[in-house]
Amino acid sequence: MMKSRFVSGRGAVLLYVMTLLGVGVLGTNLAAANRPNFVVILADDLGYGDLACYGSRFNQTPNIDRLAAEGIRFTDFHSNGPMCTPTRAALLTGMYQQRFGSMFESALSGKVHFDDGLPHAALTLAEGLREAGYATGCFGKWHLGYHPPFLPMDHGFDEFVGLASGDGDHHSHIDRSGRADWWHNDKLMLESGYTADLLVKHSLSFIERHKSQPFLLYVPHLAIHFPWQGPTDPSHRTLGIDYWNDKWGLISDPMNVSPHVKAMVESIDGGVGEILEALHRLELVENTMVIFLSDNGGYTHYGDSHRNISSNGRLRGQKTELFEGGHRVPAIAWWPGRIRPGVSDQTIMSFDLMPTLLSLAGALPGNAETFDGVDLSDLLLSEKRIGERTLFWKMDDEVAVRRGDWKWIRQGNRDRFLFHLGEDRGETRNLATVYPEKIASLSAAFDRWSQQISETPLFDGGQ
Ligand SMILES: [Ca+2]
């Protein structure tokens, strides 16, 4: 397991972690031809039931459905957190986000955390792949820091266009605090257009410019996050106005938000189609893996003010919660000729992507056990099952532990739940009083995990 990495100074910490991981030794020895391109498309707040290939009869998603039909569609894939920032931190580092401090258990707020960001102690996916010779681009929503030195350019991306905050206006690109929030690299530079269209436009340019070298293209959509605005819905925000109590957009019927969300889902799908078309046109398909996933579950309702937003299928709960609806998400891996089409019920987490992609790039460090996530390349390419493991979610005083089909949830000191997901994916039957020994075992595992996380912080200072 990890040794302590608490070292003062960002540069020293990064150098230390990179040395620890052996990056730069293995990665640069490989021929370019062996290194596939990676396109990671991250939808925001997209629920388990929002895509046609996951059962939606409302949204039309032919391009994502095609990815699913030609690739592996996961039915037990989980975001590391039930909100945006936690999952992004884990996805881009291969680590439990709790290692970076308690602020990474929920969303970085533009009011409270405006000067905070992902600690530089973390080796990011972009840094690892760039060291291995990859061009790295991020086009979309970052939400791991609001300004330099915490933007994508500061974390291994060569290029960035998009928003730093978690919830900009999809048309005017103004954040919830009334600030302009559209960046080109490390400079604020507003641009006209709908966010989903702009980030795809920049992604296509990036692919075109880097078609002759390995690349990592990270496309974190803002859709379907509020403000709920489709391409033809009006702009909501203007500069200088505080939208903290008016963040949802102009919704004609707050009891039925779904028409707006449907337009957003379908805008994501259209962008997937454009990216696929470019990969085919540039003859990059046989050497490119596309991952499509969501960063957390959907909102089905928002308090009493908004209803019928998105769908988590038959799962219990929604975004911000540790029931399945908060973190079991759609996820697809596509690589024609390398990944055989199918459906996988393996239990996967967002943080598995980093060791997987580094492995496929030939840049996985010798001591890969340093990651909390695991290398899925044998699962993807050879359908080899991964070993059983115990997985953890924690947001403030809510905890969930998963081992095999069993899942334990503790909400503060109040409620305790035990579910057998194999027989009860919808978490309708609480077995907490039936199997106290299961709870004791999972609770003890959580205590050990929590202790280990607190002893090996990956940030420079307490929070
Ligand atoms: Ca989200």
List keywords for this structure.
single chain; 463 residues; alpha/beta; Arylsulfatase, C-terminal domain; 25% helix; globular; disordered N terminus; binds calcium ion
Verbal overview:
With 463 residues, this protein is α/β, with parallel strands linked by helices. It has two domains: 381 residues, Alkaline Phosphatase, subunit A; 64 residues, Arylsulfatase, C-terminal domain, CATH 3.30.1120.10. Helices cover 25% and strands 17% of the residues. It is built from ten helices and 18 strands. The strands form four sheets. It has a ten-stranded mixed sheet, with helices on both faces. A four-stranded antiparallel sheet has the order 15-16-17-18, with helices on one face. α5 runs parallel beside α6. The longest helix has 24 residues. It is globular. The N terminus is likely disordered. Bound molecules: calcium ion. The site of calcium ion has 7 residues, from loops.
Tell me the CATH topology of the largest domain. Alkaline Phosphatase, subunit A
The count of strands amounts to 18
- What Rg, in angstroms, do the CA atoms define? 21 Å
- How many domains in all? 2
CATH architecture of the largest domain: 3-Layer(aba) Sandwich
CATH class of the largest domain: Alpha Beta
In percent, how helical is the residue content?
10-25%
Main beta sheet strand tally, sense and closure: 10 strands, mixed
